[in-house]
## 1
Amino acid sequence: MPVITLLEGTDSRKPVKIWTDEVSPQALEQMRKVASLPFIHKHVAGMPDIHLGKGATIGSVIATTEAIIPAAVGVDIGCGMNAVQLSLKASDLPDSLLAIRHDIEKVIPLGAGGQHKEAQLAGDSSVARGLQRILEKHPDIVHRGNRDKFVRQMGSLGSGNHFIELCLDEQDNVWIMLHSGSRGIGNQIGQYFIHLARKDMERQQIHLPDRDLGYLKEGSDHFDDYVEAVVWAQNYALLNREHMMNSILNVLHQHLKPFTVINEAINCHHNFVEQELHDGQQVWVTRKGAIRARKNELGIIPGSMGARSYIIRGRGNPEAFCSCAHGAGRSMSRTAAKKAFSVRDLEDQTQGIECRKDKGVLDEIPAAYKNIDKVMSLQNDLVEVVCTLRQIVNVKG
């Protein structure tokens, strides 16, 4: 499906291309504001799951020359997905999956402040040394009392829409899929540099359409430090997911017959920035709630906790800067979902899935999300489907 919503460019604004016509006025206005910044490359792209975000729209792809907007990268730096296929079939699983879910919940800390009791990283590891170098220049990123928290949060899920799932594909093969990011340390790095960018704008008397669109220019005081910090957080997020994957595999080995991981593990960030070549030019590409989908590159697009998910292969569409949607995308705020639905609604919408069915996860009810099948139909020029997954176990943060 080609671009559906197009906001024409003007003398002061680049065009906006969106792969859906279901865009709220607030999200459209956010896209217009981003497109008005002087360093936008070519146009701003919006994915089919686009919805309102803080600073920049979730589901947006922003290519920039010689500048990065920290708030567009966001505070859940490196948030993304991992998936592996196992040498197991549905028939190899027990009739009840409750014990498996409970044991996963025991070994992986859940919730906003979730962390292990003991350090999961050595204090002299390359990860710890990398953060130490960053903190030597910017000690205020982390409060001194929380300096060691990141070594205990390694291998923890977080809250909100972060999840762990066991899934089955069309041939009843068993998959593990999980969604998480850089936890508290990534949040602190993001908040810190968003604040620095805002202060830089004030000091230079640069007037922005939104104060959260403060940016760091190449060669400025904090640009290289931010790139170093955000790359560190993206790598931490990747390690965090790998650590959890190993913990989940250990749980399954205790409950199931011997098995192996088959095919390659799929890893993809959807809140990140990296330098890429587009239109013959090196640019910084920020994907906020979008994944990279270069030609033949594998990725993961999850639905809600009651809908199917997809393993995809990118088509490398240049109009989308080789990107695609990162999921279904919310159609309703968390507050609105809690008001609109009951626990009974949650039970009805998650029938056949071993998961929590209580008011604590009511804001994640499937009806609060867009229809994942429609999202997929809108981006068949961005990706092709490799296989379709349906979840049978869901663990929420």
Note: The longest helix spans residues 223-255.
## 2
Amino acid sequence: MVDRILEFRGINRDHLGMYFEELGGRLVTDSFPFVYEAASWRAEILSEDELAFTKTFIVNAVHIRFEAESLEELEQLIKNYRYKTTRVGG
């Protein structure tokens, strides 16, 4: 198994979990670390913190470990997940 830990900011932890379900994952735990499993990958929502840039501008920061059988599968999982988390301003 290969893995990578990434940080996502400003996205609700529940939404981040929902994106794993949309990619075919199944939630297997009810508390930190929240674990999602599929046939060829696994993901763990490890922690959620708050980052304060100013007194009024505070965002959450969620750390996620992605695991897959091969580097190619890992990169594809992360690519698909990033599509789900992309926010376009306008």
Note: The CA atoms of residues 50 and 60 lie 4 Å apart.
## 3
Amino acid sequence: METTVFEARAKELVDDIKEIVRVKGINLEDELEKAGIPRNSSDRILNQGVMPNLSEFLALCQISGITFHLPYVETTNSPM
């Protein structure tokens, strides 16, 4: 049940990323290949609607200029 909601949102995000890259005039297939994503994988993502895995998604984000700022907690080196 929840999976379809997340899948639908993920597909929207990928479509948004494709639009950002298109507006910037970047060839997404070439950039994905430079990032180490094979052409057959990029074709499945861009043309067949297959969901990217995490590394492919992060490459899409990096190419489009989307950045993530993850929270972190500093810890000491001493054992607890």
Note: The chain has a mean pLDDT of 87.
